[in-house]
């Protein structure tokens, strides 16, 4: 093999016409508000309604882009508070997690998965502790927030598939959580045309 052949071989794989496979996440964000009980994520693309890349990386509204095929094997959840929590706000946050559900919806199909936010975050025990006497420091079992929920059966989002993730608060979130941000990412293997 000559020098030119070796150099050409070393350059293979970046550009080509056979497509590529990537580890990928599509994400979208909802702002928490006591008056809004349902959030429909992935229905507005980047730039729509002022959404920036920090809010979403979907380039199309509510539809997988042409030339892309995402095999979702994990749902990731992230939460950012707008302000520091007071003691009572911790319980409000825990209540919101246990009283809120997420569902992956694909057009003309039944739900592809339904979970509480508590389950998606990986926190089986949500119990704040207020010491009853000064100096009390009784240890409690603490949840291990993982924020990554692995799917045993992947969800396929093929090109041009209409989908959304619906977040439903079954009890209105407390006013203390107003303007907090909930971000959901659908992660897995992306097969896309180059």
Structure description:
This protein is mainly beta and 194 residues long. The chain has a single domain (24-128, 141-192), classed as Jelly Rolls (Sandwich), CATH 2.60.120. The chain is built from three helices and eight strands, in the order αβββαββαβββ. It has helices at residues 3-11, 87-98, 117-121, and strands at 20-31, 38-41, 68-80, 100-106, 113-116, 148-157, 163-169, 181-192. The strands form two sheets. Strands 1-8-3-6 form a four-stranded antiparallel β-sheet. Strands 2-7-4-5 form a four-stranded antiparallel β-sheet. A hairpin with a 6-residue loop joins β4 and β5 (113-116). The longest helix has 12 residues, at 87-98. The mean pLDDT is 90.
Number of domains: 1
Main sheet properties: 4 strands, antiparallel
Secondary-structure element order, as H and E? HEEEHEEHEEE
Shape: elongated
Oligomer: single chain
Q: Mind telling me which CATH architecture this is?
A: Sandwich
In the predicted model, the low-confidence regions spanning at least 5 consecutive residues are none
Specify the CATH class.
Mainly Beta
The value of Rg in angstroms is 21 Å
What portion of residues belong to β-strands?
35-45%
What fraction, in percent, of the residue positions are helical? 10-25%
What is the CATH topology descriptor? Jelly Rolls
Q: How large is the count of helical segments?
A: 3
How many DSSP-defined strands?
Answer: 8
Indicate the structural class. mainly beta
- Give the neighbour order of strands across the main sheet: 1-8-3-6
């Amino acid at each position: 093999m000559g020098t030119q052949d070796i150099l050409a071989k070393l350059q293979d794989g970046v550009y080509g016409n056979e497509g590529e496979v990537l580890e990928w996440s599509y994400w979208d964000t909802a702002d928490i508000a006591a008056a809004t009980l349902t959030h429909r994520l992935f229905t507005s693309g980047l730039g729509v309604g002022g959404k920036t890349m920090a809010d979403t990386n979907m380039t199309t509204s509510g539809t997988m882009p042409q030339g892309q095929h995402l095999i979702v094997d994990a749902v990731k959840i992230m939460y950012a508070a707008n302000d520091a929590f007071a003691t009572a706000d911790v319980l409000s946050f825990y209540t919101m997690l246990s009283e809120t559900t997420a569902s992956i919806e694909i057009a003309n199909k039944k739900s592809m998965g339904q979970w509480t936010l508590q389950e998606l975050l990986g926190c089986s025990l949500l119990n704040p502790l207020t010491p009853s006497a000064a100096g009390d420091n009784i240890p409690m079992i603490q949840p291990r927030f993982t924020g990554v929920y692995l799917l045993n059966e992947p969800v396929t989002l093929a090109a041009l598939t209409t989908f959304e993730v619906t977040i439903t608060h079954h009890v209105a979130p407390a006013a203390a959580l107003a303007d907090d941000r909930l971000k959901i990412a659908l992660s897995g293997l992306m097969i896309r045309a180059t």
